[in-house]
Task: structure prediction
Amino acid sequence: MCLAFPGKIVSIENSLAKVEISGVTRDVSLMLLPDAKIGDYVLVHAGFAMQIVERQDVDEMIALRAEMHGAPRTVNL
Result:
């Protein structure tokens, strides 16, 4: 199974972005998303930004991941 994690692009240099994921900044390739810009939220897998996502979707993903670790249910799907 593959997991992609949501993060926010905080800077871009050429086709490499710094993306903040759960408070940690990672270098991520934008080769697959050349139109991504600073402030966008992206799904990251294996060092690549795979898809631009909306902030609401990111909040739901974070809440669902917390539920998997025992947090009370906060998302109604």
In short: The chain has a mean pLDDT of 88. Strands lie at 5-13, 16-21, 24-29, 41-45, 48-53. Residues 4 and 74 are 21 Å apart (CA to CA).
